[in-house]
Amino acid sequence: MSEISKIEEKFNQALSGAKSLEELDAVRRDFVGGKGLLDTHLKNLKNLPIEERQKMGSSMNALKGVIMKALHARKSELEDEALAKTLASQAGDPTLPPFPFRVGRIHPLTQVMNEITQIFLGMGFGIAEGPEVETDENNFGSLNFLEDHPARDMHDTFFLEPSPGSVHESPLLLRTHTSPVQIREMRSAKPPLRIIAPGKVFRHEAIDATHSSVFHQVEGLVVDKNISFADLKGTLEIFVHRFFGSSVKTRLNPSYFPFVEPGAQMDILWGDRWLEVLGAGMVHPNVFKSVGYDAQEVSGFAFGMGVERLAMIRYGVKDMRLFYQNHVDFLHQF
Ligand code: PHE
């Protein structure tokens, strides 16, 4: 019997000495493992007389139960401690600023582009898109820019290296305006047409506060029977009033674009200054001819506006480059 209590005492000592799960496992192996203390003692029982053997046997089994239970309890204690330690080491840095962190927002140019689009969607326009790499024909030729006409020089164009075996006769280019989408739309659909085409355009020019080699336009095109200049004027006035405010004064001035006749620009009175906000005009008969429309049957108007320019006017941004520099403090104001 004293043998049993000795083992128990030894076990209790070992148990209180086990400070980690590894050490606890070592204790388990020493006492109740395959070649552990209890096992060895049980094997020795066979040398005892039968009666004593039975008594010892059941006492040893009882002890084994006690030991297992103690090991189990200590194990979950140690596991809890380990978990608490991990959690403590992963707890946040209390010196960090609290929520809310700055949340990302939609870029001002995207906001303005979406807003322009929404206004025209509200007037029954659909959205059309075209590629940024265009043919000379779509960007110029079909839009009545004559070969060698100085109007081509108004658009400083990025031409692409012709690739070997290209099917295009003239070099491809980065579109200098969204007007080629007019051509694509008219070639692929029949009147009536009422679309806007938002997108990126490219000009080979020096970058400064009011110029960028990549910028954005929204194009508009309406073609139907009996479309008049009054329709153009009314549509653009509604747009300007929705975008800049209903009290803003507008005026139309004559202007020149090869693909419209007559051509005009719309100005708004902003503060005490007249500012040009878009170009427009009645679709030129040559343009209708190039897309296979009958200029006796249908008429139409087109307009185009610069998204950066509209955003700069409305928000009083003096330097276009701010839109592309991605300074969070600038972007966060919109
Ligand atoms: N495409 C012209 C430009 O980029 C704008 C425009 C579009 C003018 C449609 C008239 C009609 O300057």
Kindly describe this structure.
The protein is of the alpha+beta class. It has two domains: 2-89; 108-331, 2-Layer Sandwich (BirA Bifunctional Protein, domain 2), CATH 3.30.930. It has 13 helices and nine strands. The strands form two sheets. A seven-stranded mixed sheet has the order 1-4-5-9-8-7-6, sandwiched between helices. The protein has a two-stranded antiparallel sheet with strand order 2-3. Helix 1 runs antiparallel to helix 2 (21-32), helix 2 runs antiparallel to helix 4 (50-90) and helix 5 packs across helix 11. The longest helix has 41 residues, at 50-90. The radius of gyration is 42 Å and the shape is rod-shaped. The termini are far apart. The mean pLDDT is 93. Bound molecules: phenylalanine. The site of phenylalanine has 11 residues, from strand 8 and strand 9.
CATH topology of the largest domain: BirA Bifunctional Protein, domain 2
Shape: rod-shaped
User: End-to-end span in angstroms?
Assistant: 86 Å
Number of domains: 2
For the biggest sheet, the summary is: 7 strands, mixed
Provide the low-confidence segments as ranges. none
Strand order of the largest sheet: 1-4-5-9-8-7-6
Radius of gyration: 42 Å
Number of strands: 9
What binds here, in terms of ligands, is: phenylalanine
Order of helices and strands: HHHHHEEHHEHEEHEEEHEHHH
What is the CATH superfamily classification of the largest domain?
A: Bira Bifunctional Protein, Domain 2
Q: How large is the count of helical segments? A: 13
* Residue fraction in strands: 15-25%
Average pLDDT number? 93
Assign a percent range to the helix content: 40-55%
* Helix/strand structural class: alpha+beta
Q: Can you tell me the CATH class of the largest domain?
A: Alpha Beta
Task: Tell me the CATH architecture of the largest domain.
Answer: 2-Layer Sandwich
